[in-house]
Amino acid sequence: MARIVCKYSLFIIWLVLILQYSLSTCAHSKKLYENKPCKRFVLYYHDILFNGTNIANATSAATTNYTSLGNFKHGMLVVFDDPMTKDNHLLSTPVARAQGFYFYDMKTTYNAWFSYTLIFNSTEHKGTLNIMGADMMSEETRDLSVVGGTGDFFMARGIATFRTDVAQDDYYFRLEMDIKLLNENKPCKRFTLYYHDILFNGTNVANATSATAVNRTKLGDFKLGMLVVFDDPMTIDNHLLSPPVARAQGFYFYDMKTTYNAWFSYTLIFNSTEHKGTINIMGADMMDEETRDLSVVGGTGDFFMTRGIATFRTDTFQGADYFRVQMDIKLYECY
Ligand SMILES: *[C@@H]1O[C@H](CO)[C@@H](O)[C@H](O)[C@H]1NC(C)=O
Ligand SMILES: *[C@@H]1O[C@H](CO)[C@@H](O)[C@H](O)[C@H]1NC(C)=O
Ligand SMILES: *[C@@H]1O[C@H](CO)[C@@H](O)[C@H](O)[C@H]1NC(C)=O
Ligand SMILES: *[C@@H]1O[C@H](CO)[C@@H](O)[C@H](O)[C@H]1NC(C)=O
Ligand SMILES: *[C@@H]1O[C@H](CO)[C@@H](O)[C@H](O)[C@H]1NC(C)=O
Ligand SMILES: *[C@@H]1O[C@H](CO)[C@@H](O)[C@H](O)[C@H]1NC(C)=O
Ligand SMILES: *[C@@H]1O[C@H](CO)[C@@H](O)[C@H](O)[C@H]1NC(C)=O
Ligand SMILES: *[C@@H]1O[C@H](CO)[C@@H](O)[C@H](O)[C@H]1NC(C)=O
């Protein structure tokens, strides 16, 4: 008897373990998105000012002398082509160049204003980052704006935090630049959801999730002018009956006389323990194309101020009453 009970309880433990395992893998596969950190790296900027004798080493030169306003070089403009290194050694191999200018702009203390480009031209990175802003040198750290980029840093935006690493006499200073890109060319959040639209046809009241609010016009044979208002379920997989993780509320209308083309404007509404907030999406759905990109123009709550792209792909089309669209949502700005 004891043996049987023992066998039985072993079976229960095994069952519990299996159940736990399948629950955890299930929870994992149901994860809505991966929150990837945006790009961050530290580089050192070395500025050797030309003083009339250091031609071999100088990397920058004053193009205007300072004015006599105050004692802090007010008005002095320096043009530079400086090496950027990964550590704080001047003679380390540069990983980029910094080209641009700064000038001193305060009469009561040292303060500079920078505008420059980091130029990457290695096997690791090709492209540029454009940075501008005030360098309030008396602060321990100062934040400047990364306002744009090209190549590997296409359309980058972010912050470059300056910290003075060393200031040797008048001719050499070194800045640590901690560069944080908030929108790399990879999305900071990405997830795929399925949109299910069941059009009301007069009899399917129980199941319909959308209805024609304005009938088509007679211009062409592709429903031009037909306006549909929807409150559709969004699911993680392509099963209509899976529990929705969000609702899509908004409208589309057909707008082309020679083929099916629609124009969407809608909100994804998240109201679960996992996510609260909204994502607003708008754009043209050129239904003949395999995939179509619409714009994510804003968000609230967990998706505060987001922007990005929603890529549509028609997953299925069943007569006039049901269609399903895969929406691959890539957010490039996350806060
Ligand atoms: C110019 O700077 C170099 C270091 O870059 C220094 O060795 C030299 O003494 C400086 N010359 C003058 C005239 O200040
Ligand atoms: C200046 O350059 C020369 C050779 O180009 C080098 O020997 C010297 O160490 C450099 N000085 C500084 C301060 O970097
Ligand atoms: C720059 O200006 C200062 C004072 O206004 C003067 O002493 C110095 O000689 C000037 N330097 C040059 C290179 O013109
Ligand atoms: C980048 O590097 C390549 C190979 O070293 C060189 O041919 C090219 O001129 C460089 N481009 C720039 C913009 O520095
Ligand atoms: C309405 O749509 C439902 C499916 O949602 C379908 O079963 C039914 O036949 C349709 N009725 C008409 C009149 O088209
Ligand atoms: C419509 O809803 C009923 C019950 O609400 C369900 O049994 C049926 O499968 C649904 N039809 C479709 C096409 O989803
Ligand atoms: C919508 O318009 C079409 C063509 O103009 C017409 O055949 C149809 O009956 C209209 N439907 C409704 C519900 O008014
Ligand atoms: C969100 O869910 C909560 C709890 O289920 C509910 O009380 C609330 O009304 C919902 N809000 C919206 C906007 O759907």
Description:
- This protein has 335 residues and is mainly β.
- It folds into two domains: 40-181, AOC barrel-like; 189-333, AOC barrel-like (Beta Barrel).
- The chain has one helix spanning 2-29, and strands spanning 34-35, 40-48, 60-64, 77-85, 96-104, 112-121, 126-135, 142-151, 158-168, 172-181, 189-198, 210-214, 227-235, 246-254, 262-271, 276-285, 292-301, 307-318, 322-333.
- The strands form two sheets. It has an eight-stranded antiparallel β-barrel with strand order 11-13-14-15-16-17-18-19.
- The radius of gyration is 29 Å and the shape is elongated.
- Mean pLDDT is 88; it is low at 15-31 and 33-37.
- Bound molecules: 2-acetamido-2-deoxy-beta-D-glucopyranose (8 copies).
- It is found in: Secreted, Extracellular space, Apoplast.
In brief:
InterPro entries: Allene_oxi_cyc_Dirigent, Dirigent. 8% of the residues lie in helices and 51% in strands.
Task: Name the descriptors.
single chain, eight-stranded antiparallel β-barrel, mainly beta, AOC barrel-like, 1 helix, 335 residues, binds 2-acetamido-2-deoxy-beta-D-glucopyranose
Strand order of the largest sheet: 11-13-14-15-16-17-18-19
Which ligands appear in the coordinates?
Answer: 2-acetamido-2-deoxy-beta-D-glucopyranose
- In total, how many beta strands? 19
Task: Tell me roughly what share of residues is in helical segments.
Answer: under 10%
Radius of gyration: 29 Å
Provide the structure class.
mainly beta
Succession of helices and strands: HEEEEEEEEEEEEEEEEEEE
